[in-house]
Amino acid sequence: MTAPQLDDPKSAVLNPLTFASAKEQAQALADGRVSAVDLLEHSLARIARFDGELNAVVAHDHEHARAAAREAHAALARGERRALLGVPVTVKESFNVAGLVTSVGNPAFAANRAERDSLAVAALREAGAVIVGKTNVPLGLTDLQSYNEVYGLTRNPWDPERTPGGSSGGSSAALAAGYVALELGSDIGGSIRIPAHFTGVYGHKPSYGLVSLGGAGAPPGRFSARDLSVTGPLARSAGDLELALDLLLNRDPLTAKAWRATLPPARRHQLADFRVLVIDTWPGTERSLSERLVIERVIERLRTQGVQVSRPADLPAGLLPDLARAHPLYRTLLGSSLAEPPAQSETALQQLAELAPEDDSADAAWLRAPTLAHRDWLKADERRHALRHHWERFFESFDVVVTPVAPVPAFRHNHEEPKDARTYPVAYEDGIRQVRFLDFFYWAGLPVLPGLPATSFPLGLDDDGLPIGAQAVGPWLEDRTPIALARLLGEAYGGFLVPPGYEAGSAR
């Protein structure tokens, strides 16, 4: 079957759906305004047209995708209705898709072909989604850029000289380029939220433990999930985040026998009713110009809508958890979350040997983490749970916390080794400074350590024409609340913007 041409009458229906939400695409399919077969071919045509440059979709299975589209078309004709019936989606390469390789960008796993879908992918299929392919990641999912020896480099649709982020970088690029309306990602250090910020889309990091990671990652065959890590959706609308989250719940076959998660409704249904704390400066640092722009734009929009906005200086002592003390704990648990951590570099080993016993800095925590004794991990875990309870008390007074996602918009590709020694230019009031790779994760780690839900949402463009975004952090297991704030802001001010040259019908 050939893709519809730009002058084909079908294009009059298909082009408006290019950047539509998954909900809108599903409705168009249910209404019979477009067929599942034509919508898939439209998606494949855009990938063929643009992905030579972007390299976002790195694993394809057109035969099975076309068969699934035909089945969806027949089901729709019979009157079946499911949330994603006939809607094309892609998923992050780290999720098993039956018949496709899961390598996490590692040549050692380049032949690791999955026999069955991961639980999250199976949930999307059950809802009727047509799996188009898999999107690129960094090696081992451990970078803010998406490149590796297996699949190569993924570029940002807003500027091919810049990264779309990592580790769900291919996911965010595929959404921004109009390939699909919904993506599946994972997040332990901002891997959903930072790519969303870099490309101007939406992303949701669910509460820890809410969505099963079964069938994701390499090597295959693991039963336990990596500590801190979560699975969640990326989309071009906040509404699609909630749609996907509902599909991903209660998929683990063991726990589903007795336990079911039923998320509480969003706390507020109008912007003016939200109680919001806004933070623009990480303790002990200076805010970058990008962080200032993000928060000034958020505050202006919230206050214009009548939202009660507070700043940390307005709070009574002790209400807000100590972010500076929490970050070394985040690095401790993050660095000790791998059963087989990569070998530390000579430089790192020397720095570790020279650490003073009383050094409790974030850098010291990161150096010690890979060899942390279990008794010390248990102490750190107890502090993590105490922090979650502290946040629970905080959220008696507030509904969400809004912060930047990263200190900069999408930066230029930088593949210098070792990775942890890389620096990136960041603009401050007094000029450009070089910021270390490790110092990009303050905001990303804030909700990860206590396991809180966080929704990244777009705020338009900066003065250089690059997307910027913020994140809304909510109470544990109250994922609908930060998603609701993002959705209401998008309805009031707009959300996703199409990158220049990727408009529907564009041949570039």
Helix and strand arrangement:
Layout: H1 11-17, H2 22-31, H3 36-54, E1 57-60, H4 62-77, E2 88-92, H5 119-126, E3 130-135, E4 147-148, E5 152-153, H6 169-176, E6 182-187, H7 193-199, E7 202-205, E8 230-235, H8 238-248, E9 275-278, H9 289-304, E10 308-310, H10 323-335, H11 346-353, H12 362-368, H13 374-394, E11 400-404, E12 423-428, E13 431-436, H14 442-448, E14 454-461, E15 467-473, H15 480-493
Parallel strand pairs: 2-3, 2-6, 9-10, 9-11
Antiparallel strand pairs: 1-3, 4-5, 6-8, 7-8, 7-14, 11-15, 12-13, 14-15
Helix pairs in contact: 3-4, 6-7, 8-15, 10-12, 10-13, 10-14
InterPro entries: Amidase_dom (IPR023631), AS_sf (IPR036928), FAAH2 (IPR052739)
Organism: Paraburkholderia nemoris
Protein name: Glutamyl-tRNA(Gln) amidotransferase subunit A
Tell me what the structure shows.
Keywords: Ligase. It comes from Paraburkholderia nemoris. Residues 38-480 form the Amidase domain. It is an enzyme of class 6 (ligase). Helix 6 (169-176) runs parallel beside helix 7 (193-199) and helix 10 runs parallel beside helix 12. This protein folds into 2 domains: 11-257, Amidase signature (AS) domain (Amidase signature (AS) enzymes, Alpha-Beta Complex), CATH 3.90.1300.10; 271-486, Amidase signature (AS) domain (Amidase signature (AS) enzymes, Alpha-Beta Complex). The model is unreliable at 1-7 (pLDDT under 50). An 11-stranded mixed beta sheet has the order 1-3-2-6-8-7-14-15-11-9-10, with helices on both faces. Strands 4-5 form a two-stranded antiparallel sheet. The protein contains 15 helices and 15 strands. The chain has helices at residues 11-17, 22-31, 36-54, 62-77, 119-126, 169-176, 193-199, 238-248, 289-304, 323-335, 346-353, 362-368, 374-394, 442-448, 480-493, and strands spanning 57-60, 88-92, 130-135, 147-148, 152-153, 182-187, 202-205, 230-235, 275-278, 308-310, 400-404, 423-428, 431-436, 454-461, 467-473. Helix 9 links the parallel strand 9 and strand 10. With 508 residues, it is α/β, with parallel strands linked by helices.
